[in-house]
Amino acid sequence: MSYPAVSAVPAPIRIPVREILPWAVLVILLSLITLYFISAEQGAVSVFANSYVHEFVHDGRHLLAFPCH
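Structure (tokenized):
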């Protein structure tokens, strides 16, 4: 017994932008804060007076090719 070929076309998934936008803004903001601490938190532009943040992100800084020495 043979069955006729049925070509099923998948329906596109619609993702509303209004649901994604707050999460996208949060992720971008957290990414920029993380990038600041990894790349610029040292020396004259330091937010914190001690070097704890610098030492905490030290390996990540070298991994992303930011010089710090």
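The CA atoms of residues 19 and 51 lie 39 Å apart. The chain is about 50% helix and 0% strand.
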